Each structure stands twice: as structure tokens, then as C-alpha cells.
Amino acid sequence: MNNSGDKSSSSSEDAGLLSLAFDCSEMVNQLSRGLKLEFQGDHQSAMKELDLVRNGIDSWLDKLDDVESRELDKEQIVGNLKEAKHAVNLDSED
Questions:
Q1: Which pTM was predicted?
Q2: How are the residues of the chain apportioned to helix, strand and coil, as percentages rounded to the nearest 5?
Q3: Among 17, 23, 31, 21, which residue's Cα sits nearest to residue 66?
Q4: Where are the domains of the chain?
């Protein structure tokens, strides 16, 4: 039996998941920077960080569509990300 197709598929899935994890980590860093800037009184720069997060969420959702994984509950993840994006939008309306 040759499982090279399975290994290739698994490798592709791993790369997709790794990319998603990196993007998620970057969004958390952007949120942290934005919060720090807001506490320092730099509201405009903080809003720029929130814009980056909003764009990151959109990109993340697009990448998630391309990842084939039985391990992920995509429906729950999409719901959580849409909720997070809504919260970011509310924060930027101040």
C-alpha cells in the first residue's frame, strides 16, 4: 500500500493550519499593540491596528475555506471570527 497521497494531503493540511496559526498570532499581537497605543492616548494609531485586525480576519476566513481538515469545526470558528470582527467594528466606532 502506498500512502504517499495521504502524506501529501496531510502535509498540505499541516501547512494550511500552520499559516492560520501564524496569522492568528499576528492578529493577537496587533490587538495588543492597539490596546497599548490606546492606553498611551494614541487613539488614531490604535484604530490603525484594529483595521489591520479586521483585514486579517477577512484574510483568515478566506484561508480557512481553503483548508481541508476533519479536525476543525469550521462553522464554529467562522461564527467566532465574525463575532470578533463585529466587536472590533464596535470598538472602532468611538
A1: 0.68
A2: 85, 0, 15
A3: 17
A4: 4-92
C-alpha neighbours within 13 Å on the C-beta side of residue 63: 20
What is the SS3 string spanning 16-65? HHHHHHHHHHHHHHHHHHHHHHHHCCCHHHHHHHHHHHHHHHHHHHHHHH
Residue 9 is predicted with a pLDDT of: 61
Contacts of 4 (CB under 8 A, 6+ apart): none
pLDDT digits (tens, 9 = 90+) for 39-88: 999 999 999 998 998 888 888 888 888 877 777 788 888 888 888 878 77
Helix (H, G, I), strand (E, B) or coil at 71: coil
How much is the pLDDT for 33? Answer: 93
> For 70, which DSSP code?
S
| CA max distance for the chain | 63
Instruction: State the CATH architecture for 4-92.
Output: Up-down Bundle (1.20)
